[in-house]
Amino acid sequence: MLRKIRIALAIFFWLSVTALFLDFTGTIHAWLGWTAKIQFLPVLLALNVGALIFLILLTFVFGRIYCSVICPLGITQDVISWLSGLRKKKRYRFFFSPEKKILRYSFLAITGIGILVAIIAHTGIIISLLDPYAIYGRVATTVLNPLYKLGNNLLAYFAERADSYAFYSTDVWLKSISSLVISIVMMIIIVVLAWRNGRTYCNTVCPVGTILGFISKYSLFKIHIDKSKCNACGLCSRKCKSSCINGKEHKVDYSRCVACMDCINTCKHGAIGYQFAYGKKCGNTTNNSALKSCKKADESGANVSTPQNASEENSANMSRREMLTATGLLIASTALNAKGKRVDGGLAAIVQKQAPARERRILPPGAKSERHLASHCTACQLCIAACPNNVLRPSSDIKSLMHPEASYERGYCRPECNKCSQVCPAGAIHKLSLPEKVSLQIGHAVWIESNCVPLTDGVECGNCARHCPTGAITMVNYIPGDDTSPKIPSVNTEICIGCGACENLCPARPFSAIYVEGNDVQRFV
Predict the structure, then answer these.
(1) How far is residue 41's CA from residue 13's CA, in Å, rounded to a whole number?
(2) Quick one: which of 160, 9, 149 has its CA closest to 74?
(3) What does the pLDDT average to over 434-441?
(4) Which pLDDT belongs to residue 279?
(5) I need a surface site. Which of 37, 54, 207, 393 has the fewest CB within 10 A?
(6) Alpha-carbon distances of 226 from 1, 30, 223, 285, 286, rounded to whole Å
């Protein structure tokens, strides 16, 4: 029953966190946003004292159940390990191994150094690469989110043909090649480790696991082996994906045990239980008859699959190959259709906008400053996934690699939107009310004379001034005092908030005639 409860809770948290990164409607965050805000390292960086005390007490009472119930990357490792063990000959493939203390505490020290480097040098790449929640978040944002949107667009296509508006299509595009590559490489490493050795990453590399492992040594409830019932068959050791049970010596390394309860379900003699750690100790006898029966069960569980099972497996593999082929064709056809839509009224191709060479990058509204963002952001990219305006994307600069930044080729930061500040779990983006968002200056507009349409094409424009939400842009004569000269924009940087409406809606291609430079420190105007 304990194992079933643990699995049910793990499924809930895994689906909830994943849904936060896939949702492009903004509705799921209102109900399940708290599941991201109780992830350990973001809670620590945000100095969320209440959530931090809750996680510490949870670990102190029940052990490292955070890693097997709340952490999405830990749950993913469990799923991969379970899939790897579906075959009978792989069912009992693990073995006890001593704790790799040097590696564990080295990675923990690197994480601590990374936090200091982020504060001093304004670069948080070390934190980004080691935080388990951030690793999963980037995979969900860069890999799962586009696939989810492609599926949504397919449903929208068929719904439109049926005169239904139950679904609507949304843009699917590659936000950052570097972030995609890093996410895929990290996930491949974790998948290989989990497929072969269970929770190797969780119990050797992950700094969160090391911190919680130290606390769980003193937890009130622990996995306990009853020596009077145990026959030292070793099934629990070979089933433990954390490799923390020494069945022959009846010992458990509680710093690595994640309380998954698999050992309880595996033991044939009720020798393992999850109980109060400081109660009455059990006896020290063994049961030879139980040992024989357990070995017999182990041998029967290690039998190879029959020819019929092999045939079924081959057909399943064929079905998977067919599904992958169909998915690839669907993605390719969707991309071609999207490319064909980039026309002006179906007559002329539209040249796509390109990002200007900014001297200072534009930070998400509420990020305060480069230093604040670097010292708090784990690059989970939840803000990027939640941005409805296609403004936020991962940075490709080595100093701020994978951290969010704004660019206005596909949209602009609408004053009435504060989604990114609402979803950030690490406090990297300060929570803004709508009145605060309207008056927050994240940058200022800069006019480029050589790109301006009235000067290059000799036609009237004024698009930037018409769409400026704060009235910071006015049209003035190119030659002062000459009413016949072309009208050009003049920017009042004191009231410009850097929303990028002027840059995004400027008709000049491929570079806008007016663009936004980021502020070193965001301020209210």
Answers:
(1) 16
(2) 9
(3) 95
(4) 65
(5) 54
(6) 19, 46, 10, 9, 10
